[in-house]
Give the backbone structure.
Amino acid sequence: MYIIVIGGGKVGYYLAQALLDQGHEILVVERDPARTQFIIDALGSVCIRGDGCEVTTLTEAGTGRAEMFIAVTGDDEDNLVTCQVAKHKFNVPRTVARINNPKNEAIFKELGIDVAVSSTNIILESITEEVPTHSMTHLMDIREKGLEVVELKIPADAKTVGKEIRELTLPPENRLFLIIPKQEKPHVPTASTVLQAEDQIIAITTPDSEEALRKALRGS
Amino acid sequence: MKVVIMGCGRVGARLAGLLDIEGHGVTILDTNTYSFRRLPAEFGGTALTGNGMDEESLKKAGIEEADAFIALTQGDNRNVMAAQIARHIFKVPRVLCRIYDPLRRELFNSLGVESFSPTTIFAQMLKEKLEAEPEEEAK
Protein backbone atom coordinates (compact mmCIF):
# COMPACT_ATOMS: atom_id res chain seq x y z
CA MET A 1 0.00 0.00 0.00
CA TYR A 2 1.26 3.53 -0.70
CA ILE A 3 1.20 5.45 2.57
CA ILE A 4 2.21 9.09 3.10
CA VAL A 5 3.38 10.15 6.55
CA ILE A 6 3.37 13.86 7.42
CA GLY A 7 5.93 14.77 10.05
CA GLY A 8 9.30 13.08 10.48
CA GLY A 9 9.68 13.53 14.23
CA LYS A 10 10.04 10.54 16.54
CA VAL A 11 6.53 9.24 15.87
CA GLY A 12 6.79 9.71 12.09
CA TYR A 13 10.25 8.19 11.86
CA TYR A 14 9.49 5.01 13.82
CA LEU A 15 6.10 4.68 12.15
CA ALA A 16 7.74 4.89 8.71
CA GLN A 17 10.32 2.32 9.75
CA ALA A 18 7.64 -0.10 10.98
CA LEU A 19 5.49 0.34 7.87
CA LEU A 20 8.52 -0.18 5.60
CA ASP A 21 9.27 -3.41 7.46
CA GLN A 22 5.70 -4.52 6.74
CA GLY A 23 6.42 -4.05 3.04
CA HIS A 24 4.47 -0.86 2.40
CA GLU A 25 5.58 1.93 0.10
CA ILE A 26 6.24 4.94 2.33
CA LEU A 27 6.94 8.61 1.84
CA VAL A 28 7.63 10.91 4.77
CA VAL A 29 7.15 14.67 4.36
CA GLU A 30 9.29 16.67 6.79
CA ARG A 31 9.72 20.44 7.10
CA ASP A 32 13.21 20.52 8.62
CA PRO A 33 16.07 19.94 6.10
CA ALA A 34 18.46 18.35 8.62
CA ARG A 35 15.80 15.96 9.87
CA THR A 36 14.89 15.09 6.25
CA GLN A 37 18.54 14.18 5.57
CA PHE A 38 18.67 12.11 8.76
CA ILE A 39 15.65 10.06 7.65
CA ILE A 40 17.08 9.58 4.15
CA ASP A 41 20.39 8.39 5.64
CA ALA A 42 18.61 6.01 8.00
CA LEU A 43 15.76 4.63 5.87
CA GLY A 44 16.75 5.34 2.26
CA SER A 45 15.11 7.76 -0.16
CA VAL A 46 11.69 7.72 1.50
CA CYS A 47 11.59 11.32 2.70
CA ILE A 48 11.06 14.67 1.00
CA ARG A 49 11.43 18.10 2.50
CA GLY A 50 8.34 20.26 2.42
CA ASP A 51 5.29 21.69 4.16
CA GLY A 52 2.68 18.93 4.29
CA CYS A 53 -0.13 21.49 4.20
CA GLU A 54 0.98 22.93 0.85
CA VAL A 55 -0.89 21.55 -2.13
CA THR A 56 2.31 21.71 -4.24
CA THR A 57 4.23 19.53 -1.77
CA LEU A 58 1.43 17.01 -1.67
CA THR A 59 1.26 16.94 -5.47
CA GLU A 60 5.00 16.28 -5.59
CA ALA A 61 4.52 13.49 -3.03
CA GLY A 62 2.03 11.75 -5.34
CA THR A 63 -0.80 12.09 -2.83
CA GLY A 64 -3.35 11.32 -5.56
CA ARG A 65 -2.35 7.64 -5.57
CA ALA A 66 -1.91 7.29 -1.79
CA GLU A 67 -4.25 4.79 -0.15
CA MET A 68 -3.56 6.07 3.33
CA PHE A 69 -2.45 9.42 4.68
CA ILE A 70 -1.13 9.74 8.23
CA ALA A 71 -0.38 13.10 9.90
CA VAL A 72 1.74 12.84 13.04
CA THR A 73 3.26 16.29 13.60
CA GLY A 74 3.22 17.81 17.08
CA ASP A 75 0.59 20.40 16.12
CA ASP A 76 -3.05 19.38 16.01
CA GLU A 77 -4.05 22.18 13.62
CA ASP A 78 -1.40 21.10 11.10
CA ASN A 79 -2.51 17.46 11.34
CA LEU A 80 -6.13 18.47 10.81
CA VAL A 81 -5.52 20.72 7.83
CA THR A 82 -3.10 18.40 6.01
CA CYS A 83 -5.56 15.51 6.36
CA GLN A 84 -8.41 17.67 5.07
CA VAL A 85 -6.31 18.76 2.07
CA ALA A 86 -5.43 15.09 1.37
CA LYS A 87 -9.04 14.04 1.68
CA HIS A 88 -10.78 16.77 -0.25
CA LYS A 89 -8.15 17.83 -2.79
CA PHE A 90 -6.57 14.44 -3.49
CA ASN A 91 -9.42 12.08 -2.52
CA VAL A 92 -7.23 9.90 -0.29
CA PRO A 93 -9.60 7.17 0.97
CA ARG A 94 -8.28 6.95 4.52
CA THR A 95 -6.82 9.75 6.64
CA VAL A 96 -5.35 9.29 10.10
CA ALA A 97 -4.42 12.19 12.38
CA ARG A 98 -2.44 12.20 15.58
CA ILE A 99 -4.03 14.34 18.28
CA ASN A 100 -2.02 15.88 21.06
CA ASN A 101 -4.88 17.56 22.93
CA PRO A 102 -7.39 14.78 23.79
CA LYS A 103 -10.23 17.31 23.63
CA ASN A 104 -9.74 17.51 19.87
CA GLU A 105 -10.72 13.90 19.23
CA ALA A 106 -14.42 14.64 18.85
CA ILE A 107 -13.75 17.76 16.79
CA PHE A 108 -11.56 15.86 14.32
CA LYS A 109 -14.25 13.20 13.84
CA GLU A 110 -16.84 15.91 13.30
CA LEU A 111 -14.59 17.54 10.70
CA GLY A 112 -14.27 14.35 8.67
CA ILE A 113 -10.96 12.82 9.69
CA ASP A 114 -11.36 9.02 9.40
CA VAL A 115 -9.23 8.07 12.39
CA ALA A 116 -8.06 10.39 15.16
CA VAL A 117 -5.47 8.89 17.47
CA SER A 118 -4.86 10.56 20.80
CA SER A 119 -1.54 9.43 22.25
CA THR A 120 -2.51 10.94 25.60
CA ASN A 121 -5.69 8.84 25.72
CA ILE A 122 -3.86 5.67 24.73
CA ILE A 123 -1.34 6.13 27.53
CA LEU A 124 -4.14 6.96 29.98
CA GLU A 125 -6.01 3.79 29.02
CA SER A 126 -2.90 1.65 29.46
CA ILE A 127 -2.48 3.12 32.89
CA THR A 128 -6.09 2.50 33.94
CA GLU A 129 -5.76 -1.08 32.67
CA GLU A 130 -2.98 -1.60 35.17
CA VAL A 131 -4.90 -0.08 38.06
CA PRO A 132 -7.03 -2.86 39.60
CA THR A 133 -9.53 -0.56 41.30
CA HIS A 134 -10.75 0.82 38.01
CA SER A 135 -13.89 -1.04 37.12
CA MET A 136 -14.06 -0.74 33.34
CA THR A 137 -11.36 -0.49 30.71
CA HIS A 138 -11.93 0.45 27.08
CA LEU A 139 -10.14 -2.00 24.85
CA MET A 140 -11.33 -0.91 21.43
CA ASP A 141 -13.78 1.37 19.64
CA ILE A 142 -15.77 0.20 16.65
CA ARG A 143 -16.44 3.75 15.61
CA GLU A 144 -18.54 3.19 12.50
CA LYS A 145 -21.09 1.23 14.53
CA GLY A 146 -20.89 3.34 17.68
CA LEU A 147 -19.82 0.29 19.69
CA GLU A 148 -16.98 -0.32 22.10
CA VAL A 149 -15.28 -3.38 23.51
CA VAL A 150 -14.67 -3.14 27.26
CA GLU A 151 -13.20 -5.21 30.02
CA LEU A 152 -14.71 -5.42 33.51
CA LYS A 153 -13.56 -7.12 36.66
CA ILE A 154 -16.06 -8.56 39.14
CA PRO A 155 -14.93 -7.54 42.63
CA ALA A 156 -14.94 -10.27 45.31
CA ASP A 157 -17.63 -8.40 47.26
CA ALA A 158 -19.94 -7.73 44.30
CA LYS A 159 -23.62 -8.60 44.82
CA THR A 160 -23.61 -10.49 41.51
CA VAL A 161 -21.08 -13.11 42.59
CA GLY A 162 -22.80 -16.55 42.52
CA LYS A 163 -25.59 -15.32 40.22
CA GLU A 164 -26.34 -16.73 36.78
CA ILE A 165 -26.04 -14.45 33.74
CA ARG A 166 -29.82 -14.85 33.10
CA GLU A 167 -30.52 -13.19 36.47
CA LEU A 168 -28.76 -10.01 35.43
CA THR A 169 -30.56 -7.18 33.65
CA LEU A 170 -28.12 -6.38 30.88
CA PRO A 171 -28.89 -3.42 28.60
CA PRO A 172 -30.35 -4.76 25.31
CA GLU A 173 -27.54 -3.73 22.95
CA ASN A 174 -24.84 -5.27 25.15
CA ARG A 175 -23.23 -8.70 24.66
CA LEU A 176 -20.84 -10.59 26.90
CA PHE A 177 -18.11 -12.24 24.81
CA LEU A 178 -15.83 -13.99 27.14
CA ILE A 179 -15.34 -14.69 30.81
CA ILE A 180 -11.79 -15.08 32.06
CA PRO A 181 -11.98 -16.60 35.55
CA LYS A 182 -9.12 -16.17 37.96
CA GLN A 183 -8.24 -19.91 37.99
CA GLU A 184 -10.00 -21.73 35.14
CA LYS A 185 -9.70 -21.33 31.38
CA PRO A 186 -11.54 -18.52 29.55
CA HIS A 187 -14.98 -19.51 28.27
CA VAL A 188 -17.88 -18.01 26.33
CA PRO A 189 -20.68 -17.25 28.80
CA THR A 190 -24.17 -18.74 28.44
CA ALA A 191 -27.38 -17.85 30.29
CA SER A 192 -26.56 -20.39 33.01
CA THR A 193 -22.95 -19.29 33.57
CA VAL A 194 -22.41 -18.38 37.22
CA LEU A 195 -20.37 -15.28 37.95
CA GLN A 196 -17.42 -15.76 40.25
CA ALA A 197 -15.36 -13.35 42.28
CA GLU A 198 -12.62 -11.69 40.26
CA ASP A 199 -13.91 -12.86 36.88
CA GLN A 200 -12.72 -10.72 34.04
CA ILE A 201 -15.42 -10.10 31.46
CA ILE A 202 -14.97 -8.89 27.91
CA ALA A 203 -18.13 -7.28 26.60
CA ILE A 204 -19.43 -5.17 23.76
CA THR A 205 -21.37 -2.06 24.72
CA THR A 206 -22.23 1.46 23.59
CA PRO A 207 -21.09 4.76 25.13
CA ASP A 208 -24.64 5.36 26.41
CA SER A 209 -25.16 1.99 28.04
CA GLU A 210 -21.73 1.25 29.51
CA GLU A 211 -22.77 2.59 32.90
CA ALA A 212 -25.86 0.33 32.92
CA LEU A 213 -23.67 -2.63 31.94
CA ARG A 214 -21.28 -1.91 34.78
CA LYS A 215 -24.15 -1.74 37.26
CA ALA A 216 -25.71 -4.96 35.95
CA LEU A 217 -22.47 -6.91 36.25
CA ARG A 218 -21.32 -5.57 39.59
CA GLY A 219 -24.69 -5.16 41.25
CA SER A 220 -23.99 -1.56 42.23
CA MET B 1 -24.04 42.10 16.53
CA LYS B 2 -21.86 39.98 18.83
CA VAL B 3 -18.48 39.25 17.27
CA VAL B 4 -15.59 37.06 18.47
CA ILE B 5 -12.20 37.80 16.91
CA MET B 6 -9.25 35.41 17.27
CA GLY B 7 -5.81 37.01 16.99
CA CYS B 8 -5.01 40.52 18.18
CA GLY B 9 -2.45 41.45 15.56
CA ARG B 10 -2.61 44.66 13.54
CA VAL B 11 -5.65 43.57 11.53
CA GLY B 12 -7.47 41.98 14.46
CA ALA B 13 -6.95 44.97 16.74
CA ARG B 14 -8.00 47.44 14.06
CA LEU B 15 -11.12 45.48 13.15
CA ALA B 16 -12.02 45.17 16.84
CA GLY B 17 -11.70 48.97 17.18
CA LEU B 18 -13.87 49.65 14.10
CA LEU B 19 -16.65 47.30 15.21
CA ASP B 20 -16.52 48.60 18.79
CA ILE B 21 -17.00 52.22 17.66
CA GLU B 22 -20.09 51.19 15.72
CA GLY B 23 -21.55 49.69 18.88
CA HIS B 24 -21.07 45.98 18.23
CA GLY B 25 -20.21 43.65 21.12
CA VAL B 26 -16.61 42.61 20.47
CA THR B 27 -14.56 39.94 22.25
CA ILE B 28 -10.99 39.54 21.06
CA LEU B 29 -8.87 36.48 21.88
CA ASP B 30 -5.10 36.16 21.82
CA THR B 31 -2.72 33.68 23.42
CA ASN B 32 -0.37 36.54 24.27
CA THR B 33 -1.62 39.28 26.60
CA TYR B 34 1.04 41.67 25.26
CA SER B 35 -0.80 41.73 21.89
CA PHE B 36 -3.68 43.66 23.46
CA ARG B 37 -1.47 46.78 23.48
CA ARG B 38 -2.51 47.17 19.84
CA LEU B 39 -6.15 47.79 20.78
CA PRO B 40 -7.23 51.45 20.70
CA ALA B 41 -7.18 53.14 24.12
CA GLU B 42 -10.94 53.73 23.99
CA PHE B 43 -11.75 50.07 23.14
CA GLY B 44 -14.88 49.10 25.06
CA GLY B 45 -15.05 45.39 24.20
CA THR B 46 -13.53 42.40 26.00
CA ALA B 47 -9.93 41.28 25.55
CA LEU B 48 -9.44 37.68 26.62
CA THR B 49 -6.25 35.64 26.87
CA GLY B 50 -6.88 32.23 25.36
CA ASN B 51 -6.50 29.87 22.46
CA GLY B 52 -9.21 30.10 19.82
CA MET B 53 -8.78 26.44 18.92
CA ASP B 54 -9.79 25.42 22.42
CA GLU B 55 -13.49 24.84 23.03
CA GLU B 56 -13.32 26.11 26.60
CA SER B 57 -11.67 29.39 25.60
CA LEU B 58 -14.22 29.86 22.85
CA LYS B 59 -17.08 29.28 25.29
CA LYS B 60 -15.56 31.81 27.67
CA ALA B 61 -15.42 34.26 24.80
CA GLY B 62 -19.16 33.74 24.32
CA ILE B 63 -18.98 31.81 21.06
CA GLU B 64 -22.33 30.16 21.80
CA GLU B 65 -24.16 33.47 21.49
CA ALA B 66 -21.89 34.99 18.83
CA ASP B 67 -23.30 36.18 15.51
CA ALA B 68 -19.88 36.13 13.86
CA PHE B 69 -16.41 34.66 14.35
CA ILE B 70 -13.29 35.91 12.59
CA ALA B 71 -9.98 34.01 12.60
CA LEU B 72 -6.99 36.33 12.16
CA THR B 73 -3.88 34.71 13.65
CA GLN B 74 -0.62 34.41 11.75
CA GLY B 75 -1.10 30.67 11.25
CA ASP B 76 -3.26 29.55 8.33
CA ASN B 77 -3.91 26.17 9.91
CA ARG B 78 -4.80 27.65 13.27
CA ASN B 79 -7.29 29.93 11.52
CA VAL B 80 -8.78 27.10 9.50
CA MET B 81 -9.16 24.85 12.53
CA ALA B 82 -10.71 27.53 14.74
CA ALA B 83 -13.04 28.65 11.95
CA GLN B 84 -14.27 25.11 11.43
CA ILE B 85 -14.84 24.64 15.16
CA ALA B 86 -16.85 27.87 15.23
CA ARG B 87 -18.84 26.94 12.12
CA HIS B 88 -19.42 23.21 12.58
CA ILE B 89 -19.31 22.66 16.35
CA PHE B 90 -20.77 25.93 17.65
CA LYS B 91 -22.86 26.70 14.54
CA VAL B 92 -21.88 30.38 14.48
CA PRO B 93 -23.96 31.90 11.63
CA ARG B 94 -21.12 33.88 10.04
CA VAL B 95 -17.49 32.74 10.09
CA LEU B 96 -14.69 34.55 8.28
CA CYS B 97 -11.14 33.27 8.05
CA ARG B 98 -7.82 34.63 6.83
CA ILE B 99 -5.74 32.11 4.85
CA TYR B 100 -2.50 33.45 3.37
CA ASP B 101 -2.01 30.43 1.11
CA PRO B 102 -4.25 30.98 -1.97
CA LEU B 103 -4.55 27.26 -2.75
CA ARG B 104 -5.61 26.38 0.76
CA ARG B 105 -8.07 29.27 0.71
CA GLU B 106 -9.72 27.89 -2.40
CA LEU B 107 -10.10 24.46 -0.81
CA PHE B 108 -11.51 25.60 2.52
CA ASN B 109 -13.85 28.05 0.84
CA SER B 110 -15.37 25.05 -0.91
CA LEU B 111 -15.59 23.30 2.48
CA GLY B 112 -17.87 25.99 3.88
CA VAL B 113 -15.37 28.36 5.52
CA GLU B 114 -15.75 31.85 4.10
CA SER B 115 -12.08 32.70 3.67
CA PHE B 116 -9.90 35.44 2.26
CA SER B 117 -6.31 35.38 1.08
CA PRO B 118 -4.52 38.71 1.70
CA THR B 119 -1.85 37.41 -0.67
CA THR B 120 -4.22 37.25 -3.62
CA ILE B 121 -6.14 40.41 -2.72
CA PHE B 122 -3.07 42.56 -2.11
CA ALA B 123 -1.16 41.32 -5.16
CA GLN B 124 -4.18 42.05 -7.35
CA MET B 125 -4.61 45.50 -5.78
CA LEU B 126 -0.96 46.40 -6.32
CA LYS B 127 -1.16 45.27 -9.94
CA GLU B 128 -4.22 47.44 -10.53
CA LYS B 129 -2.57 50.41 -8.81
CA LEU B 130 0.49 50.00 -10.98
CA GLU B 131 -1.61 49.97 -14.12
CA ALA B 132 -3.60 53.07 -13.07
CA GLU B 133 -2.51 56.70 -12.64
CA PRO B 134 -0.53 57.51 -9.44
CA GLU B 135 -2.70 58.82 -6.59
CA GLU B 136 -2.77 62.62 -6.12
CA GLU B 137 -1.29 62.84 -2.62
CA ALA B 138 1.55 60.41 -3.41
CA LYS B 139 2.84 62.40 -6.38
In short: Chain B touches chain A at residues 53-56, 75-78, 80-81, 84-85, 88-89, 101, 103-104, 107-108, 110-111 (CB under 8 Å). The helical segments of chain B are 10-21, 55-60, 76-89, 102-110, 118-131. The longest strand of chain B covers residues 25-30. Chain B has a mean pLDDT of 94.
